[in-house]
Amino acid sequence: MKRLAVLALVLLAVPVPVAAQEGPRVTVSELLARAAEITGRVVVEGELIGDYGLRGNGYMWTQLNGDSYAYEPLLEGGALTGGNVGVAVRIPEEFVDKLGGPGGYRVRGPLVRVTGQWEYHDPDRNGESYIDVLSIDVLNPGGPLSEQPNYWVLVAGLVLVVGSVFLRRGTGWWRRG
């Protein structure tokens, strides 16, 4: 009986991870739309884009875009669905090596899932709003995007060039004969 009581005390003393400690999953759009309402930890997915700003204080700053382009870039056939939607993220430098380079026009950045503390108008950072990253998982490492030629534009351009050559030669070229 004594062993059972000790075992019960040990089991009660060991913290059990709870999924709620991770925070709610939100999109970048939801986070921005309800910025003042959301507090504490959040889980957000998106593409790291822009520059990696290593500040020398143990953190790197960049942009986390969570719009449709993060999942279906235009250069890979994604639809034009509006503007980019992103939020600043502050990432501990220890995570930088596993990220790869940031995304840009012809480069897809790493698609990541971050768990972090949402800091809305942080008074310690002059009112900045950002996610202070606690953990980060790379879902897709990203890489170069290939831009395929738009053949309709090429054909239309060729027709315009050829048409302008004929117009330049004079308007009577078709009357000969």
The DSSP helix count reads 4
Q: Regions with pLDDT < 50 over 5+ consecutive residues?
A: 4-20
The strand order across the widest sheet is 1-2-3-6-5
Beta strands, count: 7
Helical residue percent band? 10-25%
How confident overall, as mean pLDDT? Answer: 81
Count of structural domains:
1
CATH topology: OB fold (Dihydrolipoamide Acetyltransferase, E2P)
* Structure class: alpha+beta
Kindly describe this structure.
This protein is an alpha+beta fold. It has one domain (17-166): OB fold (Dihydrolipoamide Acetyltransferase, E2P) (Beta Barrel). Helices cover 23% and strands 33% of the residues. It has four helices and seven strands, in the order H-H-E-E-H-E-E-E-E-E-H. The chain has helices at residues 2-13, 28-33, 68-71, 151-168; strands spanning 40-54, 59-65, 86-92, 107-108, 111-122, 128-140, 143-144. It has a five-stranded mixed β-barrel with strand order 1-2-3-6-5. A two-stranded antiparallel sheet has the order 4-7. Strand 1 (40-54) and strand 2 form a beta hairpin. The protein is elongated. Mean pLDDT is 81; it is low at 4-20.
Present the secondary structure layout.
Blueprint: H1 2-13, H2 28-33, E1 40-54, E2 59-65, H3 68-71, E3 86-92, E4 107-108, E5 111-122, E6 128-140, E7 143-144, H4 151-168
Question: What are its keywords?
Answer:
single chain, 177 residues, alpha+beta, OB fold (Dihydrolipoamide Acetyltransferase, E2P), 5-stranded mixed β-barrel, two-stranded antiparallel sheet, 4 helices, 33% strand
